[in-house]
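User: Can you write out an input/output pair for a complex, sequences first and structure second?

Assistant: Here is one pair. Inputs:
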Amino acid sequence: MNIAVRNELRFLLNGEVVHLTQVSPTLTLLDYLRLHRQMTGSKEGCAEGDCGACTVLVGRLSQSGLVYESVNACIRFVGSLDACHVVTVEHLAELNGRLHPIQQAMVDHHGSQCGFCTPGVVMSLYGLWLETPSSNAETIEKNLQGNLCRCTGYEAIMRAAEEMGQSSNSNDTLVVNHEGVRQKLSELRDGSRLVLSGTDGEIVVPASADDLANVLANSPDATIVAGSTDVGLWVTKHMRDISPAVFINNIPDLQMITEDATGITFGAGVTYSEAFEVIARTIPTMGDFWNRIGGQQVRNMGTVGGNIANGSPIGDTPPPLIALEATVTLQKGATQRTVPLEDFFIAYGKQDRQSGDFVASIHVPHLPDGDKFAAYKISKRRDEDISAVCGAFRIHVNPDGIVQSVRIAFGGMAATPKRAEAVEKILLGNAWDEEHVHRAMDAFSQDYTPLTDWRASSEYRMLAARNLLKRFFLETNGQSVQVLRHNKILAEA
Amino acid sequence: MGHAAETRSSKQISGGVHTSRRHDSAHKHVTGSAEYIDDMPEPAGTLHAYLGLSERAHATILSIDLSAVRSAPGVVDVLTGADVPGENDISPTARHDEPVLAEGQCEFYGQPIFAVIAKTRAQARAASFLAKVEYQERDFKTDVSSAIEADYPHVTPPLTLAYGNADDALSKATNRFSGEMRIGGQDHFYLEGQIAMAIPGEDDEVIVFSSTQHPSEIQHMVAHALGTPSAAVTVKARRMGGGFGGKETQGNQFAAIAAIAAKRHNRAVKIRPDRDDDMIATGKRHDFLMTFDVGHDDEGRIEGLSAVFAARCGFSSDLSGPVTDRALFHADNCYFLPNVRLTSRPMKTNTVSNTAFRGFGGPQGMLGGERVIEEIAYAVGKDPLEIRKLNFYGETERNITPYHQSVDDNIIARIVEELETSSDYQARRKAIIDFNQTSPVIRKGIALTPVKFGISFTATWYNQAGALVHVYQDGSIHLNHGGTEMGQGLNTKVAQVVADEFQVDLETIRITATTTEKVPNTSATAASSGSDLNGMAAANAAEQIKTRLVAFAVEHYGVHEEQVTFVPNHVQVGNQLIPFADFVKKAYFARVQLSAAGFYKTPDIHWDREKGQGRPFFYFAYGASVSEVSIDTLTGEYHVDRVDVLHDVGRSLNPAIDLGQVEGAFVQGMGWLTTEELWWDDNGRLRTHAPSTYKIPLASDRPKEFNVQLATWSTNKERTIRRSKAVGEPPFMLANSVLEALSMATASVADYKTCPRLDAPATPERILLAVERLRKG
């Protein structure tokens, strides 16, 4: 064990290199910008990653090189920014006093009224524009899912976003300086472990997955922070102390996505956005489903590993992953163990994760040929909402029309993400037809006793869960039975 | 662009009235340099306040142990109601029912009972969790029905409007039925939360920066709470990050606490609640329970209507009186009710005190009235649009409202006719009915609903405004008025008026922050009145200066009055064309007063609340919309496929800004009627108090196809500012067609025989449960 230890956090902020030796684990990027640096362009609208008024871009070295992604500065911890490039709305103002083409389009199309959400909207659009200047309405809407505007009704913002496609990004400073920044971040990411200790607590950024194991061996009760889309709220809403905080969002060997004959393996630090391509390509219906997890900023920060490790009964990824027979690999010291995902969730707030354990990776087997699969999410608002009910269905019907295998899992219906075993039992070995589907629908009440809360009543949850099985049945028979905003081809395995 | 403006300038000024100009702060919005209060540099030693909230819906507070709060890191002071030096009351209607900090009891879950003052906001907030409060719980009621059952009091006297004889007409009606509708409330969700910063001055003076729609009220409330004259308090408000009515009275508490603490410690004090606390501790749109009894002929013409509008007002009156009044004023919408009795019941509940919100009760009243129309349509088996047309107010007869004002400017028939054609309503409705016959799961619906909205404060004395205009020696012009800027573009519009008056380019006009020092005794920027009132006041100020300038020219150049005209960026004096700045300079040397305070009061309005009669509104604004939706009858999920709008803003002062108001109001109204749901648990605790749980529309929720047109042919019959009409609130109610379209799609599962009676908001859950109900028959 010869890990070098560094006691200084270093990141780029617009055009400058920031060096920090004293950082509270709970210091958010937004507070750092606004309170420590008097950079007040980024606004606090909600302090929970839902409104996007604080949106900034963070550039980081990913598997595919330097990428800039929109994130919510309000729930992003400064401790997670080592070797990153933070780009704020002030960066856009450094263009000789001239407005950036996106800003000009927003002005020309009356895209701001009160102006409070505007810097965040501009930064979300900037993130999209850097990727591809001209996008269709669906893509623009997806990139604005995490930006609330209460004044304009979005129509003017959409007009501005379409206008920005007229401007090339090739002369943009972030594009021109891409290689220079990449080199700088490579230098900053020097392979050492970052440790910052102070009166406000301790921050650790391990150098590697093995180093993480060592760090946790010494402080098993440390708070593991990946995307901070959940832990961020412990701090901003409940003012919880998270020290010692171990940030794992930028550890290269936890960000691996590997595809082989058996399936796909995601390192625990893989974000939703990084996982999107392979998920959408290989699993039917999951592309659309994936794009309804949080908003763009949350998908850019949040991780599949975190969604599983926090054990929430309403996380979006567990139901489909359980239906797909995913396994989770936990590591403690040098020892790894692998458990089926459905067994990982033991009870509300209790997972099969012992002190010092961390989620290392998630393996999702390929969907066998002939299996039909769909994941559905029901929420009050279509996008950027938390599920009232989330159901995933996987079925194999043999050439005689008999159900040969079936796995159905739901979130929002019990204290944990849970399989619908009674429903499965009725379907298994029987004809995949309306009669058996209707009989199986009645069995949901044996599997689940859902709660009533602000997202939905017990009655609705049960009704919707039953009807989702019917939807799956109709869709496997080729019927289009969903209300869709943009035309889709529902994928089939 | 610059070039085009220059060549045009000789013929026409840039940015005059009736032209589309961007928001004056747009370039600052997009760069993040528009300054909101939390962005201002803090004076050295600024302290931060944070509220401590009650954790019972209704209880006697036996004791509050604040020792742990006081000894927490950074804490400088803790305030309770006893520390309010003046009166512990911020009731905006002088009913003395709303304490700054509650004493002895709490009346809703989340009521502020103390305020921590600390060196940082984080320290104040952390300490606010540490109080030990001993409660003796009392019974509580959080919703209208249970409050009525428990015989809870009204928070303010109810109103009855009556015209004709409702009882008689109902007893003789050809057809008669009754019904009810629940209409949900709405959180404002202004993106910038409540905030105030107070800076102490000499003697009893204090300056308060407040995110408020009503600086004068903040001034008076702060003075009241401090026990000082209003003249000691100055309130400043440059801009709000959204208001929507949520900053008409709700800023009082924060401003008062900041000011009290600032004077106590002789330090600047800032207070900004977290979003969750903002949503818990400040008022919202009123929820209503509307019950009605209606009689109609076989065609669907209304013969008599009696309706009661009961509202969840919360623990205190706040603005619930005028809000529930306005609900009644709009229950008729565009329809003549020959025999009608409308009664309000402003119910006390153990919830946060509800307040102003865009439309101010009007949307709830109108939605209830439209439900009556919809129910009649189902009863007689017709398209609701036919019933609407049958019952429209006439232009010269059948035009008396339930409050006995005649509708003299009725253009709804033309609006609806044009929209019906431009949206291809009839053909689309037929296609939808055909579609539904062959689509087992997905169903569609379409609806056309009209809007008529009364413009003026029903509190007649609020219909006044002031402005202050200075012309400087170099010809540049400083504009100040009593209205506040919350994103609606008021400052831009008023500046356009002043530019037009002087015939100078808009760039000549400097827009400045609203402050009680420059224009006193202002009304709230509310009731859609901002540009009507302040535009007129600013025009009046400009006219005064122009009159003096003309008199100067007559004397100095020896010409007749008629020979002096203000032409683009110049003054024409006889044969001489003098650049405006040169002319002003000459006037200055001739000792002409180049500053004026303007004033305006809306003429011809009066209202006798006791009698329920008068002319409360100067004029009406009209509009209509067609919405088409799809629903999934397996899950209740839905989508708004297309919306067409035709809206009346008279002669628009700024069509681009008005279009933005119409689009924004529609989507906000749609949120109110669809996904925005307020949910209280069994402890009386609001559980939807953040954007994670309270869902306002996203870009992907806006109508997929959204065609919005202004009725460019319309002109205000009354002499309003450049014959424009108010635009802030009326288009909010255009969203009513979304609810009715959802209703039609739902009704399709039972062959349109039964009105689905959807309550609002029509969440996917409500749609699915209605589908199930109708299917069971």
